[in-house]
Design a protein that fits this description.
Helix content: 40-55%
CATH topology: Rossmann fold
Oligomer: single chain
Number of domains: 1
CATH architecture: 3-Layer(aba) Sandwich
Strand content: 5-15%
Largest sheet: 4 strands, parallel
CATH superfamily: Alpha/Beta hydrolase fold, catalytic domain
């Protein structure tokens, strides 16, 4: 599950090696990518409800869950509710202080305005390592190394997102993420040491709320480990979600 303003395509850097060993479903959350928006308020609870309904409809109740950013918070919420699969949460939101959440809101609001303003030139700009560094430094510790195609797809998704502003408002106005010490499945939380969106200091509260979780630090890595450290991210997901004898397959869909 992807983050705010993104789509299933954010996983393009890791989906092939994962799909070689796992059955992979990459979702567009409601209101993002090709998925229709929720009828009501786009809260974490509502997104989690939608994913749970999707799981039930497709026989995926026991599926292992992987999420990034907002999606990382959603998979933790599903684990808190008792989802029986294993959970990998990469740089989750929802564990911020009041100051942190103000920085989060202000910085993302500025970023989205800039991206929307330069959208006609995105394809040209993102071919430049200098431009990628300028526009993606908030999200990556090595933005110049992000493939141009990945940067274009991500920023186009942000620029065209129908729900970004509304969901951002819900995220910053909502209570912080609740936890549990009795989730039935294994929980792994990964965090980039140089995350400038969900600061590394927030990992302490995440561990307090989910004391059974294993914390993995990505060195020299920003908010998206699947961009900055794709091989390490694949290794962490595979190690945290032993596959049994599942057959490999891939798919993307919308809840």
């Amino acid at each position: 599950m992807h983050g705010l303003g993104s789509s299933h395509e954010t996983w393009s850097t890791i989906v092939e090696p994962l799909a070689a060993q796992r059955e992979v479903w990459a979702l567009d959350l409601p209101g993002f990518g090709k998925s229709p928006a929720l009828a009501g308020r786009p809260t974490i609870d509502a997104f989690s409800d939608a994913v749970a309904v999707f799981q039930s409809a497709h026989g995926l109740e026991d599926a292992d869950l992987v999420g990034s950013s907002m999606g990382a918070r959603i998979v933790l919420e599903l684990a808190r509710r008792g989802a029986s699969g294993k959970t990998v949460s990469l740089d989750p939101g929802g564990f911020w202080s009041r100051r942190d959440v103000r920085v989060f809101q202000t910085s993302l609001a500025v970023s989205i305005r800039l991206v929307r303003g330069i959208r006609p030139a995105l394809a040209t700009l993102m071919r430049s390592a200098v431009a990628r560094t300028a526009l993606l430094a908030q999200f990556s510790a090595r933005p110049w190394a992000i493939p141009a195609a990945v940067a274009i797809t991500e920023l186009e998704s942000l620029a065209t997102s129908r729900q970004f502003d509304r969901v951002l408002r819900e995220l910053v106005e909502a209570p912080t993420q609740r936890g549990t010490n009795s989730a039935p499945g294994r929980i792994t939380i990964g965090w980039g040491r140089q995350d400038r969106v969900c600061f590394p200091s927030q990992a302490k509260l995440a561990q307090e709320r989910f004391p059974q979780a294993t914390l993995h630090w990505f060195e020299r890595c920003g908010h998206f480990p699947h961009w900055d450290a794709p091989a390490e991210t694949v290794d962490l997901i595979l190690a945290s979600t032993p596959s049994g004898d599942r057959s490999p397959a891939t798919g993307d869909s919308s809840p």
